[in-house]
Amino acid sequence: MRLDDALGFAINNTGRAMTRLLMTAFAPYDVTPEQWSILKRLEEGDEISIKELSKRVGKDQANVTRISDLLERKGLIMKKPNPEDKRSSLVCLMDEGKQIIRLLDPIDEQVHQVVLKGIAEHEMELLKQLLAKMRENCNAELQG
Amino acid sequence: MRLDDALGFAINNTGRAMTRLLMTAFAPYDVTPEQWSILKRLEEGDEISIKELSKRVGKDQANVTRISDLLERKGLIMKKPNPEDKRSSLVCLMDEGKQIIRLLDPIDEQVHQVVLKGIAEHEMELLKQLLAKMRENCNAELQG
DNA sequence: ATGACATATATGTCATGACATTTATTTGTT
DNA sequence: AACAAATAAATGTCATGACATATATGTCAT
Question: Where is each HTH marR-type domain found (chains A, B) (predicted)?
Answer without folding.
Answer: 4-136
